[in-house]
Amino acid sequence: MADTNEMAPGATIAITDAEFAKFQAFVRETTGINLTEIKKALVVARLGNRVRSRKAQTFAKYYKIITDPAEGEELQTAIDLITTNETSFFREPSHFEFMKEFIRSLRPLPLPFRVWSAASSSGEEAYTIAMVLADVMGGAEWEVVGTDISTRVLERARQGLYPLERTNTIPKDYLHRFCLKGKDHYEGMALVSKSLRDRVTFAQVNLCRPLPELGKFDLIFLRNILIYFNQEQKQLVVESIITKMKPHSLLIVGHSESLNGVSSRITAMRPTVYHAL
């Protein structure tokens, strides 16, 4: 006789309002991200396969699994799946033009010049920064640190290997200088050059927790992540980020974000660009 509790392969598992409320609190507590009601379908889509894989049958039972102290690996898997990781090379390109102007205006140029990609996802932003630094600063000392809460995307970032179609937004001269076109087994892929990969370091960081020792930075990119936080969490994250800024360094946020009223320790230099006081 068939097990009546066995789920059909690919069957959609519904989530109740009470279950979703638990996941809202879980995601807010662990990542700082505020999941609104409209994100209910996203939770089902991204975690449904894990519910089936762990034979949990309901989201309530899966919640018990990921909150079990012995299930740290499954907890990280859930975090990896639920956090949004949309990115691209040279996303919001005006920021990188401004970055060039900023570096060229510095006299003397602080060395090593350090840049932090604080929500680097699968690495496109960090490598974009590296391309610009290599172009503007040449052989001078510089380094990029890319961080994210998701171990899954960080592993991809460290490889520096991307489908060719994802490189369409890289300027042609940069593409030729800083990327290698894959052959044979890597046909259809592009690899960021080793000279850039050697200057970019990736690490897991939860911006809503005390920050690890990362050193101080001349420029910090904190783009397209604050929109997922409520006002209180946004203030906490920004105040924490500021502690990693050198005097007179800059903080850049996404075009849909503003830090007006968030902190008295920074001031707007232009839209989306903030100066450390």
Secondary-structure blueprint:
Blueprint: H1 17-31, H2 40-53, H3 59-66, H4 72-82, H5 94-105, E1 113-117, H6 124-137, E2 142-148, H7 151-159, E3 161-163, H8 172-178, E4 179-181, E5 189-192, H9 194-197, E6 200-204, E7 217-222, H10 231-242, E8 245-253, E9 266-270, E10 273-276
Parallel strand pairs: 1-2, 1-7, 2-6, 7-8
Antiparallel strand pairs: 3-5, 4-5, 8-10, 9-10
Q: Which terms would index this structure?
A:
277 residues, alpha/beta, Chemotaxis Receptor Methyltransferase Cher, domain 1, Rossmann fold, seven-stranded mixed sheet, 10 strands, globular, disordered N terminus
Can you describe what's shown?
The chain is of the alpha/beta class and 277 residues long. The chain folds into 2 domains: 17-82, Chemotaxis receptor methyltransferase CheR, N-terminal domain (Chemotaxis Receptor Methyltransferase Cher, domain 1, Orthogonal Bundle); 94-160 and 194-276, Vaccinia Virus protein VP39 (Rossmann fold), CATH 3.40.50.150. Helix content is 38%, strand content 18%. The chain has 10 helices and 10 strands. The protein has helices spanning 17-31, 40-53, 59-66, 72-82, 94-105, 124-137, 151-159, 172-178, 194-197, 231-242, and strands at residues 113-117, 142-148, 161-163, 179-181, 189-192, 200-204, 217-222, 245-253, 266-270, 273-276. The strands form 2 sheets. Strands 6-2-1-7-8-10-9 form a 7-stranded mixed beta sheet, covered by helices on one side. Helix 10 (231-242) links the parallel strand 7 and strand 8. Helix 5 (94-105) packs parallel to helix 6 (124-137).
